[in-house]
Amino acid sequence: MFPTAVRLAAKPPGFFRRSVEELSRVSKFIWNLESLQTPTKPYHLLDFEDESTVAGCKTMADRAVGGFSTASLDHIPADPSTNTPAHARFHGRISTRLPDNWRVERTGYAAFRNQDRGLWLFGRLYWDLDQHYYLALRVKSDGRRYTVNIQTDTIVETDIHQHRLYTRHHRESPSSSSSNPLSPLSSPEAAKLPEKAEAKYPGGIPSSLSDIPPPSTVMSSAMATTPGSTGWQTILLPLNSFVRTNHGLVVEPQTSMIRQRVKSIGIGSTDRIEGPYDLRIHRIWATNGMSEEEVDEERWICGSDALPVDEGVRTRWTADPREILANSRAQGDKEPKTKGLKGLRDEWD
C-alpha cells in the first residue's frame, strides 16, 4: 500500500493521513524550537468547522442501559450573515424515566466524545497538552449544565478528568436547592440531597464541579448578556483544575492528569432536568491564552463577548519587555530572552 492522494484525502483521516499530519506537526514543533519556550499558538484538537471532525465523534446516552434520553451531534454549515461559523450541534432530550429494569437506578445522561484517534507510524496517537495551561472551548450554550470530560491513557481506563463548562449563560440547577419552586424533586427526594452529595463528594464538592464558577475559570467579561453579543463565547478551563472521577464519583487521592497522553475529549449533560438541550461547539483547543493571530476570528464570532489578547502570550511572559529588551541588546542578543516554560509553570503553581 502506498500513500496515494486518494488515501491522504480520505475522511475521516486514515492511517497514512494521520501519520503525515502528525509528522508535519512534530517537525514544525522541533524546527521552531517550541519545546524550549512556552507555546503562543493554539493547538487545535477538535475543529468542528470540518464536517469529518463531527463524523469522527460518537454520542452516548442512557438508552444504552434502557433509558429514554437521546443524543445527536450534527454538523451545521456557516452563516456569514449572522457571524455564525460552521460548528457542531449537540442536541437531544433528557429523560429521567427509569426503564423496566431493577438494576438501573438512575438515568438522565447524554454526552459525546471523539473516537479513539487510531494508529500512526509510531504507535497509538495521543494529544500532548503538556506545554499548555488551558483547554479552550468556543461554544453557544442554552444555559444548561454541561461537563467537559478528558480521558487519558491511564491504568484505570474508566477514569475521567472532569470540569464544569461554565458559560455566561450558566445558571444554577433547579435541583440544587430544595426551596426552589422549579425543583423537579419532591420533598423526600430533596431532603436526601445533602446525603447524596456527601456520599459522592466525601471531601466536599470540588470547586471545578460546583454550581458556582471558581475564580480560576476564565470567561468572557460578565455573567449576563451584553449589547452586541452573538451568543458565542470562548471559555478557558485550567487543565490543572480538572478533577479525576470514575463512574461519576470523585476518586481519592487525586492525581495529576497525564497531559502527554490525552485519548479523548467530550462534553456531557449532567443536570438531569427533563426536556430538550442544545449546545453549539465551534472548536476545542489547547492554549496558553488568546494570541494576536486569533483575535480577529474571536471578535468576528463572539462580538462584544470576545476575549482580549493575553498580555502574557503577547510579550512571551516577560516581566518587563522594555527592560529585558534593553538587557538583551546590551548583551548582543537581537531578540529579548523569554522566561520559558519552567518559569511560567512556577507561576501556575
Automatic annotation (TrEMBL):
Keywords: Chaperone, Mitochondrion. Pfam families: CIA30 (PF08547). Residues 47-171, 221-281 form the NADH:ubiquinone oxidoreductase intermediate-associated protein domain. Residues 166-225, 320-349 are annotated as: Disordered. Transmembrane segments: none annotated. InterPro entries: Galactose-bd-like_sf, NADH-UbQ_OxRdtase-assoc_prot30, NDUFAF1. Residues 331-349 have a biased composition (Basic and acidic residues). Residues 174-191, 200-211 have a biased composition (Low complexity). It is found in: Mitochondrion. It comes from the Eukaryota. Belongs to the CIA30 family. This is Complex I intermediate-associated protein 30-domain-containing protein.
